[in-house]
Structure formats: C-alpha cells, structure tokens
Design a protein that fits this description.
This protein is α/β, with parallel strands linked by helices and 387 residues long. 43% of the residues lie in helices and 19% in strands.
C-alpha cells in the first residue's frame, strides 16, 4: 500500500480524494486544506506521497515550500487550471514529482502516485546515499563544534547540499546554542519515541537554521545520553543518509559506543590538530586507536585549527611529529569567538574573512559529488495532461 496525504484545495479535488479512498493500492492517511494544520500528521509518520491541490493558475512555489517544511515525501501537484509550459518548468526546478490538471481518470492519478513513490524509493536505496563527515578531536576546547557548525552552514547555504548537523557530544553538546537555536526536540526525544525510525520521523525532530541547515541537537540533560546507545546511532545515521546529501557529525573527545558506530559509517574523518603540546599528545594517541580499529587512513583529513605564527610551534613541526600531512589550516580569528557568543556562524557573519575562506575550501573538498538527484530531475517525465 502507498501511504498518501492530501493537502490544499481546488475544483474537483473532493471527487479525486473519494476515488482514491476506494483504490486497493492507496492508503489515505489524512487530509488538510491548510498546510499549517497538516504539519503534525505530515511529520509524524512515513509517507510515500503528498497530493497537493492548488487554485493558482501559475506554479504555487510558496505552497510547495510550505509542504516541504514538514515532509520530504514526493509531491504530486494537481490543479484545476493553469499554464502548462510555465508550471511544468517550475515544477522540475522545485523537485515536484508530477503535475496533473483535473479532471483526470482515477487510474491516471494512481499511476502518477505509484511512479513518484517508486522513484523516491530508488533514490533512497541506491542512487542517493548521503556522505558522513565526522569532526573529531581527542581533546576538548580545540574548536571542534565551531568548525562543525560553520562547516554545516557552508555546505547547506554555499554548496546547496541538504545537510544535517548531528550533535553527538551527547552530554555537553553546544551545536544548537552556537547557531542561536533553541530546539524543541533533541536526539534524546527521537530515540525514545515509539515506532520505527524513518526519514519522515527524523524530519519531525530536527531544528532548522535560517541558512538551510538541519540540526539534531544533543540532549538537554547529561543523564539522557545513556539512552543513546550504539544501535540507535547506527539506525539514525543510516536513515539520515537516505534523506541528506551530507551529515556533519560533531563528536565528543571519547571513543565510546556512539563514536564507534559513527566511525563505522564515516566517509571522511576530520581530525583537528592544534599548535599546543597537550593537543598533539592526544592526537597521537587517537591515531594509534584509529589504527587499532582499522579505520582507513585514506579517509582521514587533518585540519590545523587556530593556526598562528606566534605560539612557538609551526604546522611543519606538527606534521613531522605526527608523521601526517595537514590538509587544511584554519587561521586564528578572534571574530569566531565573537560569533559563537552571538549564536551565528562566522562564515555567514563575515564571509570574506580568512577563517570563512578556509572553511569554504574545506567544504568544497568534503562536499558530496553525487549528482544522481540532479540526473533524476533531468530525466523525469511529468504527465501534464487533461483526461
């Protein structure tokens, strides 16, 4: 059965709904004329398709965006009038699965729903697999969360990637506060919620930043971290990979169960170095642990944070001591701390700074190169026709 939700309204929409209720292939899980009223059921369970009706004679971009705030399920747009050429072109640009002008035969609507649902499942299971980028430092206070938040913001806003920032510093995570967010729900609420975890359920627990970045915040209380076990993290990352192009994971300095589960699914591990002896000592120990865990060295990228010529150590000396190559240097920038206190990413507040340029270069290197979603859009055929 294909799970379908109805939103919006137009002439002939009630008759369409009535005909689909009797279909053996369609499971109608709800309906709401106003998208705001539909938000709770849209985000509360797995949907295969949303049928959105519009009375607009041009493509209803704002209406589609409102639906997209609550679900990533394919949208089939139905209308009782409109200009075909303009609406078709904009539908492709806004990732609408299909467009139909009413009236239509029931079997035509069912075919469109089936096609949209099938295409989505193909993307989730094969073509689209999000890239997991884990930011790690074996010592606190190295700027790990500042880099994670700025990297996530850059991937979302500048690189145009659907990006999730996952805060796995489970006891004392600060990703949300550094972004100026007050999340209503956290990863703790997600893992204790009943029912199977899927992309629609995950969407109901993230907090959206204005730059387009989705954030799944750390628990509000340290004791809640105990319930976020390795198996829960494994399931969460697997579901996130079907929903996002990039998953940036902010971690704690420890090799505990959730961190090990993350490493197993990490495509790129960013290990932060610093120009101080205690941090270098911990990085050396961490590299030994990663070797014992058989983590591929080819997936590790070394990032020198707060690089400065006035601290008695140089990046070259760090490379010689650790026997690694530092791929990126992020300069010491006092404005980063100012932005942290303001709750805004430094890359957005001052995009021309040396720090922002460094983060941008890092984002371009780690950004997913998968073009399957774009190719799917180009190859999709929309059935804009009247019966």
């Amino acid at each position: 059965m294909i799970r379908v939700y109805f939103t919006g309204d137009c002439d002939g929409y009630e008759a369409l709904q009535a005909s689909l209720v009797d279909s053996e292939e369609i499971d109608v899980v709800g309906a709401s004329e106003q998208v705001d009223a539909a938000a709770a059921p849209l985000a509360g369970g797995h949907l295969d398709c949303v049928i959105h009706a519009t009375r607009s004679k041009v493509f209803p971009a704002e209406q589609v965006a409102a639906v997209r705030e609550h679900t990533r399920a394919p949208i089939v747009l139905v209308a009782s009038g409109g200009e075909s050429a303009a609406m078709l072109e904009q539908a492709l640009e806004h990732d609408v699965a299909d467009v139909l002008l009413l009236p239509q035969m029931t079997h035509t609507i069912v075919f469109s729903i089936r096609k949209a649902s099938h295409a989505r499942r193909q993307l989730q299971t094969a073509a689209h697999r999000g890239r997991v980028i884990t930011v790690f430092s074996p010592k606190g206070g190295t700027g790990k969360t500042a880099i994670s938040t700025n990297l996530g913001a850059t991937l979302a806003k500048n690189e145009g990637k659907r990006t999730l920032l996952l805060d796995l510093d489970l006891q004392f995570g600060d990703a949300a506060i550094m972004l100026g967010l007050e999340p209503a729900k956290t990863i703790y609420d997600l893992v204790v919620a009943p029912g199977e975890l899927d992309s629609e359920k995950l969407a109901g627990y993230v907090t959206k930043h204005q730059c387009g970045l989705d954030v799944l915040a750390a628990p509000l209380r340290p004791e809640d971290a105990e319930l976020i076990v390795e198996s829960k993290v494994t399931a969460l990352i697997e579901v996130a990979k079907t929903s996002y192009d990039a998953i940036v994971v902010d971690t704690s300095p420890f090799f505990h169960g959730p961190m090990l589960a993350t490493l197993d699914r990490t495509d790129q591990l960013l290990v932060l170095c610093g120009l101080d002896v205690p941090t270098l000592k911990n990085v050396r120990l961490a590299l030994q642990t990663l070797e014992l865990l058989s983590f591929p060295a080819s997936r590790i990228e070394y990032v020198m944070n707060r690089a400065s010529a006035n601290v008695g150590l140089k990046t070259r000396e760090v490379e010689e001591g650790l026997k690694v190559k530092v791929g990126h240097e992020l300069p010491l920038d006092r404005n980063v701390q100012v932005c942290v206190n303001r709750g805004e990413p430094a890359v957005l507040a001052d995009p021309r700074s040396d720090f922002a340029r460094g983060i941008t270069a890092l984002a371009k290197q780690v950004a997913p190169k998968n073009t399957a979603t774009r190719q799917a859009k180009k190859g999709r055929m929309l059935s804009f026709a009247r019966a």
